[in-house]
C-alpha cells in the first residue's frame, strides 16, 4: 500500500499538475502552429517558389525514397513554435520584472474593518 500512497502524493504535487496542464496546452498550441504553417505560411512559400509543395519533395536513392520536403516543413514548424514560445517567455519575464518593480500598495480596509475600527475608537473614548 505504501507504493500507491507514495505515487498518489507524487501525482498530486503542484509541479506534476502544472506539467500536465503544460503538456495539454502545448499539444493544443502545436496544432495551432501546425495549422498556421500548413494552411497559411506554406501556401505562401509555395506561391513564392512557383507552386512547390514542400511535403511532396523527395529524392529516390536506389529503392529508397527520401521525403526531405516533410523534413523541411517540420523544421519550419519547429522554428515557428520556438519563436512563439520565445515571445511568450519574453513577455512573461517582462511582466514579472514589472511586477517586482512596482511596490505593492497597502490594501484598503474593508467596510467591516472600518466599522470595527470606529467601534474600537468609541470604546477607547468611553474607558
Automatic annotation (TrEMBL):
One GO term in the molecular function aspect is: mechanosensitive monoatomic ion channel activity
A Pfam family of the record is MscL
- Annotated membrane-spanning segments are 21-46, 66-89
Gene Ontology CC terms, in alphabetical order: plasma membrane
Enumerate the UniProt keywords alphabetically: Cell inner membrane, Cell membrane, Ion channel, Ion transport, Membrane, Transmembrane, Transmembrane helix, Transport
For membrane topology, the record states:
Multi-pass membrane protein
**Compartments (UniProt record):** Cell membrane
KW Nucleus (keyword) present: no
Source taxon at top rank:
Bacteria
List the NCBIfam families hit by this protein, alphabetically: mscL, PRK00567.1-4, PRK13955.1
UniProt similarity note: Belongs to the MscL family.
Role summary: Channel that opens in response to stretch forces in the membrane lipid bilayer. May participate in the regulation of osmotic pressure changes within the cell.
Q: How does it assemble?
A: Homopentamer.
Q: What is this protein called?
A: Large-conductance mechanosensitive channel
Q: Which gene encodes it?
A: mscL
Amino acid at each position: 500500500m505504501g507504493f500507491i500512497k507514495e505515487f498518489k502524493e507524487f501525482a498530486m504535487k503542484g509541479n506534476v499538475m502544472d506539467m500536465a496542464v503544460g503538456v495539454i496546452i502545448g499539444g493544443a498550441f502545436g496544432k495551432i502552429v501546425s495549422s498556421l504553417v500548413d494552411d497559411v505560411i506554406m501556401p505562401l512559400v509555395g506561391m513564392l517558389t512557383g507552386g512547390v509543395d514542400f511535403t511532396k519533395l523527395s529524392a529516390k536513392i536506389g529503392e529508397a525514397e527520401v521525403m526531405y520536403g516533410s523534413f523541411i516543413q517540420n523544421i519550419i514548424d519547429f522554428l515557428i513554435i520556438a519563436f512563439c514560445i520565445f515571445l511568450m517567455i519574453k513577455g512573461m519575464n517582462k511582466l514579472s520584472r514589472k511586477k517586482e518593480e512596482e511596490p505593492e500598495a497597502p490594501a484598503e480596509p474593508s467596510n467591516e474593518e472600518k466599522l470595527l475600527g470606529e467601534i474600537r475608537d468609541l470604546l477607547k473614548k468611553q474607558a
